[in-house]
Give the backbone structure.
Amino acid sequence: MVKAQMSKRISVTLPDRTHRLLELLAEKEGTSLSDLSSYILRKAVDLALERGEIKDT
């Protein structure tokens, strides 16, 4: 039996400048701030995995 993956929610606090710039980028990309943030976090985790900085258990 394959276990279904569950999405998780987190809350982050960002400096005003970072938030403003992320909003601009999300608008430019035609996506929501939430979706862009999720994408950026996934890419950062993928990179850490590739570099061997973390291991997937």
Q: What stands out?
A: Residues 45 and 54 are 8 Å apart (CA to CA). The two ends are 18 Å apart (CA to CA). Residues 33-50 form the longest helix (18 residues).
